[in-house]
């Protein structure tokens, strides 16, 4: 698919404003990027964005919204994953194995996506596996989410632990 998959009614009017495909559900501008499958965590992208506020009440109280939905929000300079104008999170995620999919996933965010702008289609191959949730029981997920860990440090850790949690990443969502 090309960069203009669908028109985003909540897209920024300022073309310089980028959107983060791993945003927080509680941000005022948050939209749902996709829905995550219960069985294997597969992400199904929505054809059109849905304001997060419109769906939050549909999720049972005992389920963390980021467990079942992916949210997009404005990419902000105060984000812990920002270094200058770059997102260090996508740099770390690209260190991990990409999902084995053919072509780019359909995505209404792409024309405004920070990760797309920074790394192009390489980001899209990793994006479906990202799950915005905290998972402290897995060393690789903790390292990816930690803003102080650099992509080089993550790469070195993966190389030093070839049989560790990173070995299963191709089939598991990556948490940030």
Question: What this model shows, in words?
Answer:
- With 176 residues, the chain is α+β, with helices and mostly antiparallel strands.
- Helix content is 23%, strand content 18%.
- It has 7 helices and 8 strands; from the N terminus they run E-E-E-H-H-E-E-E-H-H-H-E-H-H-E.
- It has a 4-stranded antiparallel beta sheet with strand order 1-4-2-3.
- The longest helix is centred in the last third of the chain and has 10 residues.
- The protein is globular, with a radius of gyration of 15 Å.
- The N terminus and C terminus are likely disordered.
Short précis:
The chain has 176 residues and is an alpha+beta fold. It has 7 helices and 8 strands. It is globular and about 45 Å long.
Percent in helix: 10-25%
In the predicted model, the low-confidence regions spanning at least 5 consecutive residues are 1-13, 170-176
How would you classify the helix and strand content by structural class?
alpha+beta
How would the global form be characterised? globular
Mean pLDDT: 77
Strand order of the largest sheet: 1-4-2-3
Number of E-state strands: 8
Q: Helical element count?
A: 7
- Note the run of SSEs as H and E: EEEHHEEEHHHEHHE
Percentage of residues in DSSP E strands: 15-25%
Q: How far is the first residue's CA from the last residue's CA?
A: 26 Å
Largest beta-sheet details: 4 strands, antiparallel
CA radius of gyration is 15 Å
